[in-house]
């Protein structure tokens, strides 16, 4: 989900919502969560120690997205890169002088949001010194990125602490590449304790933001299955537009392309309609049609008149991801700044 500014095709763009003039709703409670709660995590963890933290994060996110709407999707992606590697511990913020940290891994190429997380952390530190973890700020910022894109404002469990280890090899091995097939995708998720429904629901995050040509053009447009041809399943009209944006042979092509070409800044059901109509970007998107459970969900969301079911499911799936390998209690640390060197 690497982002940028130029357009792919002639598309209808709905501006990112600032929800200006409306009272922000209290975060909706997540009901019927599968599994047991994680000790040390709770909705409202900072109610006594930093009661204004969620308002502070939302205010900063609103200002960030108002200035550059591409940063909303970027900060949503940021949480995925944090949580799927060593758990939700803000290890993605740690830097390595020897270039052996998560930031130096191939999947982190084009990742944006480091400065914005630090900006939010500084604002929270002014109000509540050494109280709120960077890991929790990343999770809250991701939620608000969804909300400011006209998505749900779901409740976020907090109480995470920050990790002290960041390894390039972990990020290279733990993040599913965009050319993954359905077996690989389900394996990546199951290793983390996530199921098929988490996979298909969290894939819906691709309904906002854009991707660089280098992340999909070879697999879909020019060298499908190593045969030097276009993916035959790709919608022909859609593919022609992609070819105009993404030149053949450009290995590091950073040209950005919307992942939902109709409403790229609205958190809606557009992604599932794209997958069903063969107008999605990644092989990993297409792969959702190769499993009966994920395919059925895609078909139901694509035909849905309301996003309510997806929104409810998304709240649960993000909660599940937000519980991965967390550090709580006396584990980890609370840093004054999120950026720190590991070597």
UniProtKB/TrEMBL annotation:
One of its GO terms (biological process) is hydrogen peroxide catabolic process. Ca(2+) 2 binds at residues 207, 260, 263, 268. Substrate binds at residue 176. Coiled coil: none annotated. The keyword Heme applies. It catalyses: 2 a phenolic donor + H2O2 = 2 a phenolic radical donor + 2 H2O. GO terms for cellular component: extracellular region; plant-type cell wall. It is an enzyme of class 1 (oxidoreductase). Ca(2+) 1 binds at residues 82, 85, 87, 89, 91, 102. The active site is at 81 (proton acceptor). Heme b binds at residue 206. The gene is LOC101771903. It comes from the Eukaryota. Belongs to the peroxidase family. Classical plant (class III) peroxidase subfamily. Belongs to the peroxidase family. Ascorbate peroxidase subfamily. The record marks 77 as: Transition state stabilizer. Its cofactor is heme b; Ca(2+). PANTHER family: PEROXIDASE (PTHR31517:SF84), PTHR31517. This is Peroxidase. Keywords: Calcium, Disulfide bond, Glycoprotein, Heme, Hydrogen peroxide, Iron, Metal-binding, Oxidoreductase, Peroxidase, Secreted, Signal.
